[in-house]
Amino acid sequence: MVLLRVLAAAVVCVCFQAGVALADNAAGQLAGSWKLSSWTIQIIGGEATEPFGPNPKGRAIFAADGYVTFVIVAANRKPATSNEESATLLRSLLAYSGKFMIEGDKFTTKVDISGNELLTGQDQIRFFKLEGDKLIIRTAEQVSSVFPGKRVVGSLTWERER
What we know:
The chain is α+β, with helices and mostly antiparallel strands.
């Protein structure tokens, strides 16, 4: 009976370590700098849209210490010369960072800094797929920070920068 318990504990330990190794491997594959190539948002019950236009600019940086930073802006932004233009610049910016954790094809970021206080302190859940140097990220259904009051699912495609 004792031998059976020891074996069961060993199996659990090996399975846990294998899970940690898989998560570490995924984190290692994500580590580095990624350039945004497309971003679309599907409004639930509505149409798909490119919230920052057809050529948004963005960078995601996954650090080896388990932190991630996302910055996305609309293309063709110009320096502001008025309060109204400053507000427009803020509406065409999405940025947040935080500690991330990987579970299978899902990563969760605990947001610690955000350009929109709606996100600060929240968990951002994302699903990802790696295809060589392409990273495809899909959001869970969530309340939009870009379209207030709407529920959305976002899809982002990133290219690894070397």
